[in-house]
């Protein structure tokens, strides 16, 4: 294991009620966590690594602003064309003996990324990927999948496509705090955007999403710049820590510190489950995480 440091994070506003209730009534059995997958999209820029962040309506366990992702679906078990490392290999990478679960997380990650951004990690073979997924026809396909009117596997099969699992890289596993009313057990993956594709918002549900520079977002973390830019009721006037779950904030720190996509993607990560805990510090409720030190000598964040 990398050296773990105790980190403290602000409690996002939408978790304050649940946290207080948990304390007032004594700890109870946590609600079951739903399985979820999320994909960190990456690209290099002259000013450092960039990633795609989007606004999530409602109180999403992934955060108000988050990387593309969401709950796994029963259809993620459907038979489909599969290219790249085997489900068995993925299970080993993810530190689980459950090969079916690993497969479901990989398919769910590729499906959620497609629904939310239109980026499709699929192709007819291992040497090519589908191109030009920003057309009205593809948008209709995304809407059908998002509304569960058509399965992701049907969309792929109709076009003779298989998922390119070799284009995904496993990152980390985060669980929502025990006290949260809606809990996710999320596997995060990373990917770069295939040739001649670009992320776009889902027409019916997209509110805000764009490429952000990880270094800039982290440098401005104590300002309300990003929340004000999104400009909806539960983002305006809020700082980064109030908009993101701790896992996303830590991943952004690592991106800000990385020397480009290749360096970030090739970093060796051990399978480990991270989960924020509720603590009281100086009379204030906060989230505590045991996480690998990311930015050496960052006085703001090491407590």
Brief summary of the model shown:
The protein has helices at 16-24, 87-94, 99-117, 136-146, 152-158, 214-219, 225-230, 240-243, 246-257, 261-266, and strands spanning 4-10, 34-43, 50-55, 65-66, 69-71, 82-83, 122-123, 162-164, 169-175, 184-192, 209-213, 273-274, 277-281, 284-292.
What report would you give on this structure?
The chain has 303 residues and is α+β, with helices and mostly antiparallel strands. 29% of the residues lie in helices and 24% in strands. It contains ten helices and 14 strands. The chain has helices at residues 16-24, 87-94, 99-117, 136-146, 152-158, 214-219, 225-230, 240-243, 246-257, 261-266, and strands at 4-10, 34-43, 50-55, 65-66, 69-71, 82-83, 122-123, 162-164, 169-175, 184-192, 209-213, 273-274, 277-281, 284-292. Strands 2, 3, 4, 5, 9, 10, 11 and 12 form an eight-stranded mixed β-sheet that branches. Strand 2 (34-43) and strand 3 form a beta hairpin. The radius of gyration is 19 Å and the shape is globular. The protein starts with a strand and ends in an 11-residue tail after the last strand.
């Amino acid at each position: 294991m990398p050296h773990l440091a105790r980190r403290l994070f602000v409690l996002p506003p939408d978790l304050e009620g649940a946290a207080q209730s948990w304390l007032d009534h004594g700890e109870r059995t946590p609600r079951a966590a739903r399985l979820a997958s999320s994909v960190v999209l990456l690209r290099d820029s002259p000013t450092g690594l960039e990633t795609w962040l989007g606004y999530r309506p409602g109180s999403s366990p992934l955060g108000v602003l988050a990387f593309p992702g969401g709950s796994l679906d029963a259809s993620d078990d459907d038979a489909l064309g599969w290219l790249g490392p085997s489900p068995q290999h993925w299970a080993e990478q993810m530190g689980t003996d459950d090969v079916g679960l690993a497969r479901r997380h990989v398919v769910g990650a590729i499906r959620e990324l497609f629904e939310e951004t239109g980026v499709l990690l699929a192709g007819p073979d291992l040497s090519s990927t589908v191109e030009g997924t920003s057309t009205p026809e593809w948008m209709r396909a995304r809407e059908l999948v998002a509304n569960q009117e058509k399965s992701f596997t049907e969309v792929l099969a109709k076009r003779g496509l298989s998922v390119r699992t070799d284009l995904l890289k496993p990152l980390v596993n985060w669980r929502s705090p025990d006290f949260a009313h809606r809990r996710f057990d999320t596997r995060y993956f990373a990917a770069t955007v295939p040739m001649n594709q670009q992320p776009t918002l889902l027409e019916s549900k997209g509110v805000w999403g764009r490429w952000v520079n990880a270094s800039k977002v982290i440098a401005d973390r104590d300002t309300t710049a990003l929340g004000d830019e999104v400009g909806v009721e539960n983002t305006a006037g809020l700082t980064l820590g109030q908009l993101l779950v701790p896992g996303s904030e830590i991943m952004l720190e690592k991106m800000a510190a990385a020397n480009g996509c290749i360096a970030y993607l090739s970093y060796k990560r051990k399978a480990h489950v991270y989960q924020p805990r509720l603590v009281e510090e100086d009379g204030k409720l906060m989230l505590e995480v045991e996480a690998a030190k990311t930015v050496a000598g960052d006085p703001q964040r090491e407590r």
